[in-house]
Specification:
- The chain is α/β, with parallel strands linked by helices and 322 residues long.
- The chain has two domains: 202 residues, P-loop containing nucleotide triphosphate hydrolases (Rossmann fold, 3-Layer(aba) Sandwich), CATH 3.40.50.300; 95 residues, no CATH class.
- The protein contains ten helices and twelve strands.
- The strands form two sheets. The chain has an eight-stranded mixed beta sheet with strand order 6-7-8-3-9-10-12-11, with helices on both faces. The chain has a four-stranded antiparallel beta sheet with strand order 2-1-4-5, with helices on one face.
- Helix 4 crosses helix 6 and helix 6 packs parallel to helix 7.
- It is globular, with a radius of gyration of 21 Å.
- The relative contact order is 0.14.
- The structure holds adenosine-5'-triphosphate.
- Adenosine-5'-triphosphate (ATP) binds next to helix 1.
Length: 322
């Protein structure tokens, strides 16, 4: 099966003069129906990667280099109009805050009907019916009545369901879900994850799930890509990477969250802070926080491939280090 999405050597910069690279030389690919978990601490470049693919970067952000091949089309070369025709139809995004999708002054029905008609020349009645069905699918009770409600009349969880319903309206090939459940309480979070998974599986939609939560990744994703200071530092199957990490940063992330397998062991935080992209050390960006760093790390390591995974480290972990 060929790839639906191939991101190659993506560089996204903020600030023309400074050339600050929020995303630096990032490459990954995704097949139809597969889920990639994109993880890393705050500021590592996860959202900017998502916005770069969607063509939704805030100025002065811009894709400065690389290719974003979606079903063979390089999204980085499309005009705003061409990108608008794809967005919502073939590629959709779900944000942490559903109000990034919803307009507070319009009813849900008006917004959903507009979203259907933006890409499909159907009658208003058909668009309304599709909107009602979509609300039903994401578990909104009495969908017909709820079409007349405004966003503020929904709870946070229900608002996120509506945003998911809008993202799924056109059965997109790819959804970028940026921390879609982070703001919700744990029970609602779990229900929404299950329903989102069921619906995307049914329509064979590929998903990039952006999160800092490794428990969510191990639940939803096939593959994982770990970002640090704008670069991918490790990627591979969730089983390989989370079960037997190579990069000390991946290991640090795993050790900083509670796990059934390590009950009774103290949690260990990664020392120090992620450096700002304007103040990265030369060489490996993680070396100032890494207890395995040596002089060799003053040079940026390439991504090294090994058994269906890749990592960017001169002193990788092995099972013995665990
Ligand atoms: N509009 C902007 N202008 C300037 N810099 C920006 C802008 N948006 C993001 N950045 C910078 O890009 C880097 C990556 O940010 P990004 O939002 O992608 O991180 P993230 O990994 O998604 O973190 P979080 O989990 O906090 O959302 C950060 O250093 C951030 O300061």
């Amino acid at each position: 099966m060929s790839h639906l999405l191939e991101v190659r050597n993506l560089v996204t910069e903020f600030g023309v003069k400074l050339g600050l690279r929020a995303v630096n030389d990032v490459s990954f690919s995704l097949k139809r129906g597969k889920v990639l978990g994109l993880v890393g601490e705050s500021g590592s470049g996860k959202s900017v990667t998502g916005f770069s693919i969607m063509g939704l970067l805030d100025r002065p952000g811009r894709v400065a280099a690389g290719r974003i091949l979606f079903d063979g089309i390089d999204l980085a070369t499309l005009s705003d109009g061409e990108m608008r025709r794809l967005r919502g139809k073939r590629i959709a995004m779900v944000f942490q805050d559903p109000m990034m999708t919803l307009n507070p002054v319009l009813t849900i029905g008006t917004q959903m009907i507009e979203a259907v008609l933006a890409h499909d020349p159907v009658s208003k009645e058909v668009a309304r019916q599709r909107s009602r069905d979509a609300l039903g699918l994401v578990g909104i009770p009495s969908p017909e009545e709820r079409l007349s409600a405004y966003p503020h009349e929904f709870s946070g969880g229900m608002r996120q369901r509506v945003a998911i319903a809008i993202a799924l309206l056109h059965h997109p090939d790819l959804i970028i879900a940026d921390e879609p459940t982070t703001a919700l309480d744990v029970t609602i979070q779990s229900q929404i994850i299950s329903e989102f998974q069921k619906l995307t599986e049914q329509s064979n939609t590929a998903v990039i799930w952006i999160t800092h939560d490794l428990a969510i990744v191990s639940r939803v994703a096939d593959d994982i890509a770990v970002m640090y200071a704008g670069r991918l530092v490790e990627m591979g199957s969730v089983r390989n990477v989370l079960g037997d990490p190579r990069h000390p940063y991946t290991k640090g992330l795993i050790m900083s969250v509670p796990s059934q397998n390590r009950r009774g062991e103290p949690l260990r935080q990664i020392l120090g802070m992620t450096p700002a992209i304007s103040r990265l050390p030369s060489g490996c960006s993680f070396r100032t926080r890494c207890d395995r760093a040596t002089e060799a790390c003053a040079v940026m390591p390439d991504l090294m491939a090994e058994d269906h995974r890749a990592f960017r480290c001169f002193h990788p972990m092995t099972r013995i280090d665990a």
